[in-house]
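Reminder: ligand-aware prediction takes two inputs, not one.
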Amino acid sequence: MVKAKIAVNGYGTIGKRVADAVQAQDDMEVIGISKTKPNYEAAVAHQLGYDIYAPAENVGAFEKAGMRAAGTIEEMIEKADLVVDCTPGGIGEGNKPLYQKAGVKAIWQGGESHTIAGFSFNAASNYEGALGRDLVRVVSCNTTGLCRVISPIDRELGVKKVRVTLARRAADPNDVKKGPINAIVPDPIKLPSHHGPDVRSVLPQIDITTAALKIPTTLMHVHTVNMEVNTDCTADDIKKIFGSQSRIRFVGQGISSTAEIIEFARDIRRPRNDMWENCIWAESITVHEKEFYFFQAIHQESIVVPENVDAIRAMMELESDGAKSIEKTNKAIGL
Ligand code: NAD
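Here is what comes back for the chain with nicotinamide-adenine-dinucleotide:
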């Protein structure tokens, strides 16, 4: 089978995980990753066997550090069928002319706005809409987590409205520039937060508003979700719907915090402690008339990773059925 040639531009928190997940599939392969500097992450990428590409002015610095760059970022893009842009939010937009000049397909992440691609993606919600597209944005970690729970409930029960409060991790574990911190920050103070409109970039029919607080943790986000539906239901009905979704995991057995979820991810030997699924406390699912509530935890570093693989598969038309792509991606990464 000829594999789709994938370049990962920006090899940080998301990029390194996307590269490994792509490499685990049998219908796509990583032809290169980009690093701006020859730091420890570049050294590990080199050891893992990835071809490293660098900005033209930094290629010499890689040579000096003993990890020969395979070429410039422009050269990497020329060799690819599709580039997954995992540069920091706001930077990806500047790369668009580069991708268009090379005639490659491109995926951006949730740090960019919907308009960059004109199509925002979540595998469980709108896989088929991404088939054959040249440009796609994979929505952020929080939006992915919300779409994964809203879509199946909307299909089964009809969603009347969704109200969410998000407790957001303040920084990723390696992000020393943003810490140390000791505060709870309404973010933003002016309500609602941007997460509701972002969900509507995938699910425009959903009435949703959100509020968010930044809290001093690096592990995960926690959402308090309240949904009003059009159909009478019980907590068991909700559990059955969530239980049918492969990227939703129920947590219990004494797991009462995000710290224990990450310990659990370590125990089940997930790479980098990644928890690709939404983690819902089944015990928290409470129904009041046609309204229900629950808590879910979202691992910001990894939840969008399988979504990127599915977006590639849809854009490259390697699989036309979203459910089959989800299953294939999950199996290859060990989910
Ligand atoms: P990051 O800072 O961890 O990684 C970005 C990488 O891109 C770094 O290695 C950086 O050196 C590199 N880079 C910077 N400028 C570059 C350029 N011009 N060309 C090539 N590489 C460049 O960022 P991240 O957390 O991985 O975020 C990437 C994207 O994913 C953002 O849009 C972000 O909003 C989104 N996202 C992040 C998270 C998260 O929690 N970290 C979750 C979901 C989505």
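The longest strand covers residues 159-169. The chain is about 35% helix and 25% strand. We will return to this case in the review session.
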